[in-house]
Amino acid sequence: MNIAVCIKQVPGTTQVKINPETGTLMRDSVEAVVNPFDEYAIEEALRVRERMGGGLVKVITMGPPQAEVALRYAISLGADEAYLVTDRAFAGSDTWATSYTLARGIKAIGAVDLIICGKQAIDGDTAQVGPGVAEMLGLPFVAWVRKIEEVTEKSIRVQRLMDEGHDVVSMPLPGLITVVKEINTPRMASLRGKIKAKSAKIVTLNAEALSADKDKIGLTGSPTQVLRSFVPVRKSGGEKVSGEVSTLVTKIVSTVKELNVIK
Ligand SMILES: Cc1cc2nc3c(=O)[nH]c(=O)nc-3n(C[C@H](O)[C@H](O)[C@H](O)COP(=O)(O)OP(=O)(O)OC[C@H]3O[C@@H](n4cnc5c(N)ncnc54)[C@H](O)[C@@H]3O)c2cc1C
Fold first, then answer.
1. Which CATH number do you get for residue 65?
2. What is the CA radius of gyration of the chain?
3. What is the pTM (predicted TM-score) of this model?
4. Which of 58, 146, 155, 199 has the most beta carbons within 10 angstroms of its beta carbon?
């Protein structure tokens, strides 16, 4: 069984600054890591390959040239092939354009039976790209998978995490799942894996290689436009009250009434 895993390189910190002029994230100065949820996606792909007794795990990322590091990390864990979807024309892509571009990338890397994504990226946080890729490819998908109960060449049965408990869902393959952290415990890279990753071939795919429609990629191909990004001004001050409980309650109630919050 051939499995594609979508991985995203994200800042390894929440302290990323926003460029006040362009409103975009200033990623250059911060350490980048593989999106934590994608580590579970890689691990599950490796486990499915082992369970099925063979096949290829193909990792794919869309990002700047330095996202190659994320792919080498996946190779060190046991992935077989790595694809870097990169082109200046992809810059500024929103989730729709990202989904379109990744879908084109997956088409370009040869037939796959299963696509696995993380539940969400810890920087963008939208959780839209997995389902978006499935829609673009016309494939069925199940989001928030916490366990693969059964998988064959033709179908998969999974547990989908819900607010309370879980659903058991079957779907035909090829299809896409997004996974949550409950699904497994990711392995560590072995020394042999790390050595292999250093010299592994990374296939680069640009817009031309994907035969991507230029009206569907990058900033111009993105239906959503960020008008302004800013850090909210931190409010300080306020009024501290102290004293007996009954006095405090009276004071708080009168203050809330003054604010017109309750009648
Ligand atoms: C108008 C607009 C402009 C933007 N401009 C930029 C910009 O200039 N630069 C920029 O870096 N971001 C930009 N973004 C953010 C960018 O759209 C998102 O980072 C990207 O679409 C992924 O969305 P997400 O982070 O919410 O991923 P989610 O949907 O939360 O991710 C879910 C899963 O999808 C997969 N996935 C997501 N992204 C990728 C990827 N790139 N490669 C492989 N797999 C992936 C992973 O498996 C991940 O776990 C912009 C967004 C908007 C709306």
1. 3.40.50.620
2. 23
3. 0.87
4. 58
